[in-house]
Amino acid sequence: MLRRLAHRYSRSRGMVGMPGEPRAVEVGFLRALGLGYLAICLAAMFSTEPKPSLAGEGLGVLIAFFVVVAGVIATNPLGDIPERQRVAGLLTVAAGSVALAALQPSGLWEATPYFIGILAAMRLDRRTGLAVLGVSLVALAVTAALRGHWGPALSVIVGSLPWFLMIRVMRAFREQHLALERSRTAEAEAAAEAERGRVAREMHDVLAHSLSALAIQLEAARLSARSQRVEPELAATLDRAHQLAVAGLDETRRALGALRGEDLPGPEAVPALAQSFEEESGLPVALEVEGEPRALPPEARLALYRTAQEALTNVRRHATPERVDLRLDYRPDQTVLVVADHSREELPTLVTGANGGGGYGLTGMRERAELLGGELLAEPTEDGFRVELRLPV
After folding, report:
1. Which of 19, 186, 262, 274 is most buried (most C-beta within 10 Å)?
2. How far, in Å, are 2, 70, 134, 229 from residue 298 at the CA level?
3. Domain ranges of the chain
4. What's this model's pTM, rounded to 2 decimal places?
5. What DSSP line would sit under 354-390, residue for residue?
6. Backbone dihedral region of 92: left (phi > 0), alpha (psi from -120 to 50 degrees) or beta?
């Protein structure tokens, strides 16, 4: 139960992904749409007099068009760039559009204010966006008017300003939505933190206190039994009970640490675990690590450690082996932990039943593995018992 509580409340507490950023499909669609629009503009420009060429006004139209394209590329509409670079890009688009309005009054320039207005509303702050759009519209309107095209100039002004305002309103709604999501996430994290604190306090006040008192009483009984020279079996039983109480107290402290968000043990602690088991049980443990160790998610790290811990505990409780093999294998597609005990004697029925029958320890290990998308294999072998944990990368 302590392990499950620690596992439940020690999950990663990163921020929930916020909506609003363009996804890969949306970005691809927008790029395709932009290329299609560019193709239409190119067709319109090459079919309008004066047509682009390498001499005279046609050369000016061609140069102005490339200035507009360079400005669009510099603005990087779907990327994250400094605001100064984006402003410079939009002003470059405006400069190229002014030249097009002077050289080709019925051409591409009428579409560029919409691009400037939409991107300024999306990517710039309100004042900067308005300033960039205002300068662009004034320059384009004056140029078109001087060329005698008041109608297109008025149409551009009347059409692009509402687009700017509409995008600004949509941006404001999106920012409010993101702020609300962040607030909800922070509230949920605060509630989870408070619950972790409450459970940790309850465990400390009740369970940890009781186990401490029990360990002290058992220690006193153990010392008294030794001084009075009681039966060796009774003394051994008291020693074992004291060890279990101390181990339970240590386990409670680890669970409390997990609830408080302290660092949890992982694969790097398995060698120390194997050494401790070897010293306490007197059984040789062969530890082998294969592959290149890699960083694992917190829950996977804890699952590996807890599985090794539980498997070694089962060996000490239920088996009478001569040696134990422990292997940690970092494979390209998964991380594998194997704990196997070996004995020359025939295994008692208790070993197979306790492990193969789905005791609470193995059940907890299986649940932990399945929650991480992995699996746990536990079965008797010819000379012992084998537990294998497989976690996908």
Report:
1. 274
2. 17, 47, 53, 49
3. 24-182, 266-392
4. 0.45
5. HHHTT-HHHHHHHHHHHHTT-EEEEEE-SSEEEEEEE
6. alpha
The strand pairing partners of 217, in sequence order, are none
| Cα–Cα distance, 205 to 256 (Å, whole number) | 11
Positive or negative CA dihedral for 207, 212, 215, 217?
negative
Name beta bridge partners: 286.
Answer: 325
d(CA 246, CA 243): 5
The three-class DSSP label of residue 148 is coil
- Contacts of residue 248, Cβ cutoff 8 Å, sequence gap at least 6: 211
- List the structure tokens of 117: 């207005």
Task: Give the list of residues 6+ apart from residue 135 with CB closer than 8 angstroms, or none.
Answer: 91, 94
Q: What is the CA radius of gyration of the chain?
A: 36
Architecture of domain 266-392 in this structure:
2-Layer Sandwich (3.30)
Task: Give residue 289's identity as a one-letter amino acid code.
Answer: V
Question: Which token pair is 202?
Answer: 């309850």
Rounded CA gap, 338 and 326, in Å? 6
The series of mean pLDDT values per 10 residues for the chain, 393 residues long, is 42 39 61 70 72 78 85 81 88 88 77 85 87 88 80 79 86 88 86 75 69 79 79 80 76 68 77 86 89 86 88 80 91 93 62 39 82 91 90 89
